[in-house]
From TrEMBL:
InterPro entries: cNMP-bd_dom, cNMP-bd_dom_sf, RmlC-like_jellyroll. Residues 33-118 form the Cyclic nucleotide-binding domain. This is CRP-like cAMP-binding protein. It comes from the Bacteria. It holds the Pfam family cNMP_binding.
Length: 197
């Protein structure tokens, strides 16, 4: 089995176990896709029909408001998952866009194929239940931090929690993810770097 699918299967094994036959069947449903830097994986208004696993690279999910301002909601690097859950689940147009911040490779599985596979293989449903629980916890904690700590503390927590993102994601994208203006973010970024020395 090739390397991208080996990493994909290792990710699944964090929460569940598939038989060799189930692994083979699952790999037959997967699509390996290359996404160049700045290329869109999903555009707002399109229907998202895939769940994606990031094999290599870095991507972001963002929402564009009525004034044209982008608000970053999620980042994904190697061994993380990315999709528009709302669109993929409801079949309605996506509210968000997914774009590559680096040349990336993702492994996709169509929603219909995933649903059918989870019915046949309940262990796969367990994997996604556990993965979604972790994602909901992370989103819950992020929401609480947005309400309860100042910008500098949010940035320090971001650097502690996601050290792999701090050096790879442009600062302007980190700023909007943390709910900060780029100008204010530059000030606190410099302050945090001074404190780290």
């Amino acid at each position: 089995m090739n390397k991208p699918f080996s990493n994909f299967l290792a990710n699944i094994k964090r929460y569940t176990v598939l038989t060799p036959m189930e692994e083979e069947e699952l790999c037959g449903l997967l699509l390996l896709k290359t996404v160049k830097r700045k290329q869109l994986l999903l555009r707002e208004g399109e229907v998202c029909s895939y769940e994606y696993y990031v094999h290599t690279g870095c991507l972001r999910t963002y929402y564009t408001d009525g004034k044209g301002t982008e608000h970053n909601l999620y980042f994904a690097v190697e061994d993380w998952w990315i999709s528009d859950l709302y669109s993929r689940t409801t079949g309605k147009p996506a509210h968000c866009t997914i774009a590559a911040l680096e040349d990336s490779e993702v492994i996709g599985i169509r929603q219909d194929d995933l649903e059918a596979f989870m019915i046949r293989v309940p262990a796969m449903e367990r994997f996604f239940r556990k993965a979604y629980q972790q994602a909901l916890i992370a989103n819950h904690l992020r929401s609480l931090r947005m309400l309860s700590v100042n910008g500098q503390e949010r940035y320090k927590l971001f650097r502690e929690q996601f050290p792999e993102l701090a050096g790879r994601v442009p600062q302007k994208h980190i700023a909007t993810f943390l709910g900060l203006t780029p100008e204010f973010f530059n000030t606190i970024h410099a302050r945090v770097l001074r404190q780290d020395q």
